[in-house]
Design goal:
The protein has 297 residues and is an alpha+beta fold. It has three domains: 18-129, Nucleoside Triphosphate Pyrophosphohydrolase (Alpha-Beta Complex); 135-160, no CATH class; 163-296, Nucleoside Triphosphate Pyrophosphohydrolase, CATH 3.90.79.10. It has seven helices and 15 strands. The protein has helices spanning 24-32, 59-63, 102-108, 111-129, 202-214, 265-272, 287-296, and strands at residues 37-42, 45-48, 56-58, 72-77, 80-87, 98-99, 141-143, 148-150, 157-158, 163-172, 175-180, 192-195, 224-231, 236-244, 259-264. The model has no long low-confidence stretch (mean pLDDT 95).
Length: 297
Amino acid sequence: MNQLPPLAFCGSPLDRAEDLRRSDSELAALAQQDAAGAILFLKGCPAITTDHALLRWPLAEALALPHADEPILLGLEDGAPLYVVDLDPGAAPPEEARFVDTRMAALQLPIDETGILAHARSLVEWRRKHRFCSNCGSKTRQIEAGRKRACPDCGTEHFPRVDPVAIMLVVKDDWCLLGRQEGWPPRMWSALAGFMEPGETIAQAAAREVYEEAGLTADPATAQLIADQPWPFASSLMLGLIIDAITVDITIDTHEIEDARWFSKDEVRAMLNGAHPEADIPPKIAIARRLLEVWAG
């Protein structure tokens, strides 16, 4: 197999400053540094520059923007602290900032920047949805510069959640199974996927999802983990597998997917080259495409 480039959202270059987060005085000193910077988010979208990098504002200026939320420390970038600051959705964005959909930004940014982007967006979205304690309902407070939240009433600590997702390319000889969901662009096809459930392995989750969505039996013993990828929508970990099918007759569960069909390896190669007459696959940031690259390569 040819060496493939890293996937988007993988490998943030930041030092996450683990050794500093338990010291309030150290964290306060970090935030006061002249070099402290901030990435801005608005409605789940990052601000990026015209030359395709995440826009970095001085932290003090970012916090002076109307309705700026409490900063979350992402880590140290060349020794300088870097934060993410989320702006209130109702606030007018600063004129100097250009906010771009996260998926579109990921297609434009260098790989290292997409790793920072995934970290920042996942934390912002987690905080937005977890401001209250799931144990007693009280409002939580941010601690350790945003790495976790704590309930002042019952003492429960809350950590950012990561939801594991099995995404699998089902194969049989020189054929692979792809599906599509309602609402996708008309030509778009991709690998099947689903969230893991308690008490199952990655391979078992993959086989279960294949059966539930397409009515096929897949063999968990053949599952190969090809790649994994943080996916910040909202905060998933995509676990990319190739797994062999035992049966080939498709029975679609229309509550799960709209359609599924077998594609030959030659068809997949045409899709990778943008030359298939009637089918497309996800863009380069998606792990589904990586599974197809590995299998058809």
